[in-house]
User: What shape does this take?
Amino acid sequence: RGGARSVTTSRIETSSTRIDADDIAECALRLGDDALVLAQRMGEWVSNAPELEEDVALANIGLDLLGQARALLTYAGSYLGRTEDDLAYFRADTEFRCAHLMCTPRGDFAVTVARMLIVAAYQKELYTRLAGSADDTLAGIARKAAKEVAYHLDHARMWTLRLGDGTAESHRRIQQALTDLWPLVDELMRTDPVEQRLAAAGIAVDASTLRDPFDAAIDPILAEATLTRPEVPAAAGGGRFGRPSEHLGHLLAEMQVLARAHPGATW
Assistant: This one.
């Protein structure tokens, strides 16, 4: 799997360097766990959205994210000797690599819109760049994901404008949601040696390079919605490195209960 490389032991040959297979698995896990956990959160809106059309829209966004998660976890598992179900249902919270933003409770509809706006703006830039990866599998997943998250961003923009420039109450709620979530944005843009090695090999994207284009995408939307970009300190985060959000364990308990109660069951 992947471009211009051969798997022999635990290392990957690229045209210019040698990359640990574990690094590629880690990269795929981070992206896959983000998508999986957020898909679970989006699924919590089924039958709870403010209107029937939005119920369907949020479910479809959740399914897009779930599809991305399946592809990425399958790819990570190909290096780790585990299936996508193993990785989704039989890992503890400390083994997940999702950013804390993905784990925060569903909250009200404004919280979901604010998170959707932030995540989609981040993922659109990320996947657009990752589509040029030297790893053919990651590039293929990213090309499909980039089209999906472009729709997610457009949908989030529509609702951000509708809430921000709507009633006094809708404006208050979406502004408060942004203020509450904004400390978690910084974690999305942090890099580390694993990511830097992969980026140098043309395989991954250095997340620290995404902040400027992220701000350039978000700021005009907030301005049009009469909203203010929050000036708040960044949260510590740590989800990429086995320091999960306090909310992740509760989410996994619900998501994993059936598979753990009946391991290997099919239907």
